[in-house]
Amino acid sequence: MDPRSRYPPGMGNGRGGNTSYYGRGLPSQQHNQQQQQTSAAPHHQQYVQRQPQQYHHNHQHQQQQQWLRRNQIAREAAGTARNTEAKAVALSPTADGIDSSSQGWKAQLKLPPPDTRYRTEDVTATKGNEFEDYFLKRELLMGIYEKGFERPSPIQEESIPIALTGSDILARAKNGTGKTAAFCIPALEKIDQDKNAIQVVMLVPTRELALQTSQVCKELGKHLKIQVMVTTGGTSLKDDIIRLCQPVHLLVGTPGRILDLTKKGICILKDCCMLILDEADKLLSPEFQPSVEQLICYLPASRQILMFSATFPVTVKDFKDKYLPKPYVINLMDELTLKGISQFYAFVEERQKVHCLNTLFSKLQINQSIIFCNSVNRVELLAKKITELGYSCFYIHAKMLQDHRNRVFHDFRNGACRNLVCTDLFTRGIDIQAVNVVINFDFPKNAETYLHRVGRSGRFGHLGLAVNLITYEDRFNLYRIEQELGTEIKTIPPQIDQAIYCQ
C-alpha cells in the first residue's frame, strides 16, 4: 500500500510538494488543450472582453485567467531572452504547474557537505518517498534539507504522514534510525505560528536528551517563526517562569519539571494538541509514569499522543489501552540490534579489565568511544585510570551538578575529547555521530539496557563496534541477552578489521 494513499488530500495546502499530485495543479498539456477549447467558444470570448467589476468570477475562472497571464509572460520572456535558458525556465510554468516564484529555492539552500559514509539498510530500505511528498511548509523543508536530511528514513516514511492526519501513534524502531525527526517534523508542521500558545509538548526521560531534542527542533524550524523552549529539573525555576511569560509554541522537557510548572498555573496546556513521548518505555516506568498521567489531565480531550521507542515492555500496554484506544501501530523491529554494529566479547578477570581496555585503545581505530559502567563510583575511578594511561577522557553521571553535565555533554559532542565514561544515564537517545566504538566495561544485567547501550554507535545506518568485557559472573547474562535479542556476540579476534566499523 502506497503510504501516500493514507495521507488525506489537502493536508498542508500543497506547500513544497508536487501540486499536481492530487489534481490540485493543472498540468501544462491539459491546460493547452483547455486553452484551445475555450478560445474557440464565443461565450468565453464575450466573458473575457467584459469588465471584471460587473461579475463575481468563481475560483475556476480566476485560475484560468492566471494561467493565461502566465503563458503570455512566458511567451514574451522566451521571445526576448532566447539565449538565456535559465531565465526562460524561471519565467515559464513547469510541467507540474509551479509558478516562477517557487523555482530555484533549493539552489539557495546552505547544505552541509554530503555524508559519504556507508549506510546499512536500517535507514536505506525505504519506499522511495521524498520529504516534499508530504506537502510540508516551504520553510520547514528548507530546514530539513539544511540539516542534512536527504530523504525520509523508514520510520519517518511511516510516521510523518500518519502524524499529520492527527492519529495517535505507537512506534517501535531501532536506535539511530531517525525517530527524533519522525516526530519533530510533523510537530513543527502542525504548529500555528500566529497562535501564542503551547501547542506541542515533548517529554523525554533525561536532561541531556531534552537539550538535544530541542536543538533538533530549532535547527529543523530555523526558517519558521516557532519558539522552542526546553525545561528540565536541576535548572532555575525562575528562569523558566520568565521564559513562559513570553511566546512559546513547542515545549521540550522532563515530566517532573513540566508538571510542576503546570500545577503552578505558569505552563498553560489548554491549547496543546500534541503530546510526544520519546523513549516512551522509560517514561512509563514507575519513576515517571505518575507524572506523565497527571500531565495528560491538563491536556484537551482531543489531544494527539505519539509514543516512540526501540523497546516496549508489557507495562506499556495498560497505558496504551487507557490513553491510546486506537493508535496507528508502527513496528520496524524485524530484528532488534542494528545491522551495522559488530558485537564481540572478551572473557577477562575483573583485575584484568583496565589492562584489556588499554589494549583495545592501542589496537582500535577510535573516532570517539563511550565506555559504560554499572555504578557512579566505578565511572569516576575508571575515568581516572584512563587519564593516567595517557588517553583523553571525560565522565558523566546523574550525581554531577547540572552545569557540569551540560558542559561535558557539549564538549564531548563537539569533539573536545575522544573517550567518555558514563552510567546508563547516557543510553537514552543520545546521538553523537562521531561515536563508532562502545565498550561495556561492566556488562549490563538485561537486554533492554544492552540494546540502548550499543545503539550509541552506528548512528543512522553507519557502522559501529561494540566490545563487551565479560567476567565469569557475566556468562549467564551474556547467554540470556543473546537469546532475547536474537543476536550473536562473537569472541573477539586478535585483530579486528577496521572495515567493519570505520567505513
UniProtKB/TrEMBL annotation:
InterPro entries registered for this protein in UniProt: DEAD/DEAH_box_helicase_dom, Helicase_ATP-bd, Helicase_C-like, RNA-helicase_DEAD-box_CS, RNA_helicase_DEAD_Q_motif
Stretches assigned to the Helicase C-terminal domain: 340-500
Sequence ranges assigned to domain DEAD-box RNA helicase Q in this UniProt record: 129-157
Keyword Cytoplasm annotated: yes
EC number of the protein: 3.6.4.13
Cellular component annotations (GO), alphabetically ordered: P-body
Enzyme class: hydrolase
Major localisation: cytoplasm
Reaction(s) catalysed (UniProt annotation): ATP + H2O = ADP + phosphate + H(+)
Record-linked PROSITE patterns: DEAD_ATP_HELICASE (PS00039), HELICASE_ATP_BIND_1 (PS51192), HELICASE_CTER (PS51194), Q_MOTIF (PS51195)
Record key words, sorted: ATP-binding, Cytoplasm, Helicase, Hydrolase, Nucleotide-binding, RNA-binding
Record-annotated Helicase ATP-binding domain positions: 160-330
GO MF terms held by the record: ATP binding; hydrolase activity; RNA binding; RNA helicase activity
Region (Disordered): 1-68, 92-120
Localization terms from the record: Cytoplasm, P-body
Motif segment (Q motif): 129-157
Biological role stated in the UniProt entry: ATP-dependent RNA helicase involved in mRNA turnover, and more specifically in mRNA decapping.
Homology family: Belongs to the DEAD box helicase family. DDX6/DHH1 subfamily.
Protein name as it appears in the record: RNA helicase
Organism, scientific name: Zizania palustris
